[in-house]
Automatic annotation (TrEMBL):
Its EC number is 2.7.13.3. Residues 1-41 are annotated as: Disordered. Residues 1-18 have a biased composition (Basic and acidic residues). Residues 27-41 have a biased composition (Polar residues). It catalyses: ATP + protein L-histidine = ADP + protein N-phospho-L-histidine. Residues 70-283 form the Histidine kinase domain. This is histidine kinase. It comes from the Bacteria. Keywords: Kinase, Phosphoprotein, Transferase. The keyword ATP-binding does not apply. One of its GO terms (molecular function) is phosphorelay sensor kinase activity. It holds the Pfam family HisKA.
Length: 298
């Protein structure tokens, strides 16, 4: 009987197989880890986007809260007008007096409808869609909401329109910026101040321009580089005892960047502050997909 003696395994080959096996296992683990990390990053990005949306909503509601007092007061005045002229129309039989009463009631009702329409348009969630809008019209819609508040604080309003500038924008978001800047400007001024809103086109490039300027106390130069930082605020407590959250201007900057626009501030202590928005002018036709905003032109 013959016995076949097996040769011992080659140590070098054994090490090679072991190294190959370890390498494959390592590659598999690395791929699995990379996939897991990519999934976590995707989840974090989704959470950040949702938090950004919630911050925008909270800031919007904060602005509505600031306006609530003056709007409530105005609605009370409108109702008083309607009631008084209705009583006058009931008391008098002559046609001229009744016609006057009806005209006043109609005007008051139209004013109330305009305010309500403006508030609903501002509060409406339009998602990320943008359309071609006139910056003049968007500004006028915002001024409907704030004009009584400006009158209450004896702020003069000057509108300087050099062109009917248009841009592809999410109207609710641009109005949110406008309301924020207008309220900031009003709060920065003493009674008797002047607010100037300028709308036009940039002669040096294809930009639509909108600026809000006040005659307030101005912002110190050392604070200017920080005013768009999250939670940074130059506001002190107002008559309600509330100061700024530091979210408003930071969110304004985020919104402008999402629109591929720019926001700039110029200020001089003792003279006032001017915020300027620059937005790409509206395209005539076509659809353009931009960072999270769907532009619908034409």
């Amino acid at each position: 009987m013959r016995y076949k003696i097996s040769e011992p395994p080659d140590p070098a080959a054994t090490r090679k197989d072991s190294v190959s096996s370890m390498s494959q296992s390592s590659d598999h683990n690395t791929a699995s880890q990379s996939s897991h990390e990519a999934s976590k990053i995707s989840q974090l990005e989704a959470r950040l986007a949702e938090m950004q949306k919630q911050l925008l909503h909270l800031e919007k509601m904060s602005t509505v809260g600031v306006l609530a007092s003056s709007i409530t007061h105005e609605f009370n005045n409108i109702l008083t007008t309607v009631i008084n002229y209705a009583k006058m129309g009931l008391r008098h039989q002559d046609a001229a007096t009744r016609d006057k009463a009806f005209d006043k009631i109609l005007a008051a009702g139209q004013r109330a409808a305009k305010i309500t329409t403006g508030m609903l348009a501002y509060a409406k969630d339009r998602g990320s869609q943008t359309d071609v809008h006139s910056l003049v019209q968007l500004t006028d819609d915002v001024l409907v909401l704030v004009e009584k508040d400006l009158q209450k604080h004896r702020i003069s309003l000057v509108k300087n329109i050099t062109a009917n500038a248009q841009a592809n924008v999410n109207p609710s978001q641009i109005q949110q910026i406008l309301l924020n800047l207008i309220i900031n400007a009003r709060q920065a001024m003493e009674p008797g101040g002047t607010m100037t809103i300028t709308i036009g086109s940039d002669p040096s490039g294809p930009w639509s321009i909108l600026s809000v300027k006040d005659t307030g106390s101005g912002i110190p130069s050392e604070k200017l580089p920080h005013i768009f930082e999250t939670f940074y605020t130059t506001k002190t407590a107002d008559e309600s005892g509330q100061g700024g959250s530091g979210l408003g201007l930071s969110l304004c900057k985020d919104i402008m960047e999402a629109h591929h626009g720019r926001i700039r501030v110029d200020s001089k202590v003792g003279e006032g502050t001017c915020f300027t928005l620059k937005l790409p002018q509206a395209q005539a036709t076509g659809f353009v997909q931009t960072d999270g905003l769907t532009n619908k032109a034409g």
